[in-house]
Design a protein that fits this description.
6-stranded parallel beta sheet, Rossmann fold, 5-stranded parallel beta sheet, LPS_LOS_Heptosyltrfase, 338 residues, ADP-heptose-lipopolysaccharide heptosyltransferase activity, 2 domains, Glyco_trans_9, alpha/beta, 14 helices
Length: 338
């Protein structure tokens, strides 16, 4: 059987689809898996051995559809489910199974603050799309494959960090999902351990400001490494502190301990770090959530905003830095109870 899986973006959401890809490939005899994705995100999935072929979302829609029609798919698995994926499904005219985004429930939660979200991780909801084929969640969690050429050698990071470090992912796709620079500076000052700041080129300037509090202890790697190389830094870390962003999910895929910091979004949307039941049966809970509880305006969005709609940004400004430091010490095996 030949399947087209659709997930256009973004990094974290794409990584969260990997159990569907793996389980479909391994559990359906002779399954051929194609994946339709935005070109700028193709690198995320390209090393995945369970995908047989990639297609990219093109500006020339008609050419893209013709390319897809030539593949003669048996089924479409739509894990994005928007108007563009509807156009693809209508054009291909083959049976399709689509992910339920629960947009109405999210709207109720955001607008009325009534938490009507199911207590089900988004991965398990993705898996429902392939249940008709007898595919079940294998419990192995997320996949993220780092190409051999993207492994970061020790000589590419400061000697002071060779004995071990923790990573802080300072970026996020939206302003309201990021701790302010001054909070990250305070955090770095209070953590007594070598730190690597991880992020893209767009985070480099803020990384410089954060690292300036202690240039020996804190190494700003933002913008110096590719996505796969940044993922490898995460892989080498003892612990990862991250916002609700793609590298948080990559860290979970790599089975790293994670302290997840939440601002305008919330763990209740079902996108917390996901490790799979097999890992959790063998290991203690590997992550912690840090958030401002009982804040009347949370969540103000399902994906993030470019500014706080209330103007006060309490969801991040009131994050307890000492609580994060306590969790860091606990997870590094230092004195103190969780």
């Amino acid at each position: 059987m030949k399947f087209l899986i659709i997930r256009f973006s973004s990094i974290g959401d794409i990584v969260l689809t990997t159990p569907v890809v793996r389980c479909l490939k391994k559990q359906v005899p002779d399954a051929v898996i194609h994946y339709l994705i935005k070109p700028q995100f193709k690198t995320v999935m390209e090393p995945n051995p369970y995908v047989d072929k990639f297609h990219v979302l093109q500006e020339d829609w008609d050419a893209m559809i013709e390319e897809l029609k030539e593949e003669k798919f048996d089924y479409v698995i739509d894990l994005h489910h928007n108007l563009r994926t509807l156009r693809v499904k209508n054009a291909l005219k083959v049976p399709a199974y689509s992910f339920n985004k629960l947009n109405l429930r999210k709207l109720v939660f955001v607008k009325l603050k009534w938490n009507v979200m199911p207590k089900v991780h988004i991965v398990d909801r993705y898996m429902e799309t392939v249940a008709p084929f007898g595919v079940r969640n294998d419990g192995e969690g997320l996949d993220y494959f780092i190409p051999e050429g993207a492994k970061v050698p020790l000589h590419d990071i400061p000697h002071s960090h060779h004995a071990g470090f923790l990573s802080i992912v300072i970026g996020a796709s939206f302003y309201t999902k990021k701790l302010p620079v001054y909070k990250l500076q305070e955090l770095c000052q209070k953590i007594n351990h070598p730190i690597i700041l991880v992020g893209g080129k767009e985070d480099a300037k803020e990384g410089e400001a954060i690292a300036s509090v202690d240039p020996i202890k804190v190494y700003n790697a933002c913008g110096k490494f590719s996505l796969h190389e940044s993922a490898d830094l995460v892989r080498q870390s003892k612990l990862v502190i991250a916002h609700d962003t793609g590298l948080m999910h990559i860290a979970a895929a790599l089975k790293k301990q994670v302290i997840a910091v939440w601002g305008s979004t919330t763990p209740s949307f079902g996108m917390v770090p996901y490790y799979g039941k097999n890992f959790l049966q063998r290991n203690p809970p590997p992550y912690d959530d840090v958030q401002v509880h009982k804040l009347w305006c949370r969540p103000c969005t399902k994906i993030g905003r470019n500014k706080c709609p209330q103007g006060h940004f309490k969801c991040m400004k009131e994050i307890d830095v000492d609580e994060i430091v306590r969790l860091v010490n606990f997870r590094l095996g230092r004195n103190g109870a969780k």
